[in-house]
Amino acid sequence: MSTFTVPARFNGPPSSGNGGYSCGLVAKALEGPAAVSLRRPVPLDRPLEVRPEGDDKATAFADGELIAEAVPAAPLSAWDGSLPSLAEAHAARDLYDAPFTGEFAGCFVCGRSRPDGLRVYTGPVDGRDLVASPWTPAVWTAGEDGAVSPEFVWAALDCPAYFALHGNSKQVSYLARQQVEILAPIHPDVEYVVAGKRLESSGRKGLAATAIFDATGTVLAHGECLFVVPLR
Question: Which of 10, 113, 118, 189 has the most CB atoms less than 10 A away?
Answer without folding.
Answer: 118
